[in-house]
Amino acid sequence: MAGWYPRPGRMPACLVKLVEAVPLSEREAHIGPPTGQYLVLRLRYKDAEWESEGVVHVEIFAVEPEEMDWDNGDHWVDGRASYELLPTTE
User: Fold this and answer.
1) Which of 7, 9, 42, 61 meets the CB 3.0–4.6 Å disulfide criterion with 38?
2) Is residue 80 in some structural domain?
């Protein structure tokens, strides 16, 4: 996890930096076949809170987004992906 993006009236979105960039097929992308190393996870339901598991919207970015444009769907991956918090290893 790389950070949080505040969202007015909702829980913050989670920024995840991947170890390697992920390629997407044209079917999965709205603007061609991008690759990305950053994922933004937003809780799917308005009243949801971050817990050990849940459902999120996923967007992918080639570079770390400086600020989020919540109406921009150009980097949309999935609207009902599930997440699970894994224990950290040191």
Assistant:
1) 61
2) yes
Give the domain extent around 17: 3-84
- Structure token pair of residue 79: 């609207």
Residue 29 corresponds to which amino acid? Answer: A
Type of residue at 24: L
In 10 A of CB 42, how many CB atoms? Answer: 19
| pTM (predicted TM-score) | 0.76
pLDDT tens, 37-53? Answer: 888 899 999 889 999 99
Asked if the structure places residue 90 within a domain, the reply is no
Which three-class secondary structure state does DSSP give residue 51? coil
Structural domain contains residue 89: no
Q: What is the pLDDT of residues 48-90, one digit of tens each?
A: 999 999 999 988 887 787 766 655 545 767 778 999 988 887 6
C-alpha count within 13 angstroms, C-beta hemisphere, residue 22: 15
Strands (DSSP E) contained in 24-71 are 35-43, 53-61
